[in-house]
Amino acid sequence: MQVHAPQTASTHILAVDDDPIIREAISDYLGHYEFRVTAVADGGAMQAALAHEVIDLVVLDLKLVTEDGMALARRLRDESAIPIIMLTGRGEEADRVMGLELGADDYLTKPFSPRELLARIRAVLRRRRPEIQQGRPEGIRAYRFDGWELNLNTRRLRSRDGKTVQLSNVEFSLLVVLLGAPNRILSRDQLLDMSRLHSDDVYNRSVNMQILRLRRKLETDPTNPRYICTERNAGYVFSVPVEIIY
Description:
elongated, about 35% helix, alpha/beta, Arc Repressor Mutant, subunit A, Rossmann fold, six-stranded mixed β-sheet
């Protein structure tokens, strides 16, 4: 795995290509423009990077020698909203069409100029930046607290020992709201409103059950919670410091 990380870098690009020359070219060129770049050769390394890093955009070769890049793109889109720019051969129109239908944001045909890749990355990020998706406050990539990390791109919660903890959509949305307002008492109605969870199957009293489920996943002792504490007749409060990653 190649990592090019200037001290001032903020936006993190994951490049997946089994050609070491292309990986090096992408890392070197984008690194000069203050991007942080992680360049990997296969799907396994791609999944590892997504699990352990906050990734803002993926550049993915659809014609990996040992793997189906289309399957990797499909899995990535199923699991997250991270923007994808796909790389294809010059004559592979069917792949480009299928990739775009799978949810890729843009494509480049090989051989390509690093300058054009940079322009397309910037364009995709500009289009995505104004969007405020449910459960993703604008500009925030992740929250960290007491050794835990909630990645808002991948919607993954990683525990203190590095394991991925599965969250339902409701659990994720509630946790995002709690982490966004640490040490602030939030009523059940506020939690519902701020997480946009008003629906037929999510209502005021069900918040109690969702909080209990979150505690079982977060707390060492759910009956004596340290993170999500109850304020009698008021609501809930997230009681430990939270770090925001932009």
